[in-house]
Amino acid sequence: MAVRASREVVFEAPKDAILDALADIEAVPSWSSVHKHTEVLDRHPDGRPHHVKATFKIMGITDKEVLEYHWGDNWVVWDAKATLQQRGQHGEYNLTPVGEDRTRVRFDIIIDLAAPIPEFLLRRAKKMVLDVATENLRQRVMARP
């Protein structure tokens, strides 16, 4: 059962500041309530994370996965293989500059769940993930020097 969620917001920050915050994988648990642990396993030649081991907890469900990241000038995408709780995952941020120091941020995620979950729980989980992925990220970006 594939679950999709997306949100688009505008940050008062340049795209590079947003990409830098996203690339700081080790700090993600400090601003994301769903990430319990993250560890960069290896990096791309430019220093950005390539494979990341992560532990997530959402709505009382914990899962461990290895994410494969790819980076562009205006985007980041990641994919995960099957785990105990999901058959796969694809996430992405697409950043579009809006003027000099503003950026439109589009976050999309698709999770192929291993087992069905009641719709009311899915709605709550989607909201939590979207809030973390946009509003918590915004706070992190604005707090960075």
Automatic annotation (TrEMBL):
<protein>
    <submittedName>
        <fullName>Cyclase</fullName>
    </submittedName>
</protein>
<dbReference type="InterPro" id="IPR023393">
    <property type="entry name" value="START-like_dom_sf"/>
</dbReference>
<dbReference type="InterPro" id="IPR005031">
    <property type="entry name" value="COQ10_START"/>
</dbReference>
<dbReference type="Pfam" id="PF03364">
    <property type="entry name" value="Polyketide_cyc"/>
</dbReference>
<feature type="domain" description="Coenzyme Q-binding protein COQ10 START">
    <location>
        <begin position="12"/>
        <end position="137"/>
    </location>
</feature>
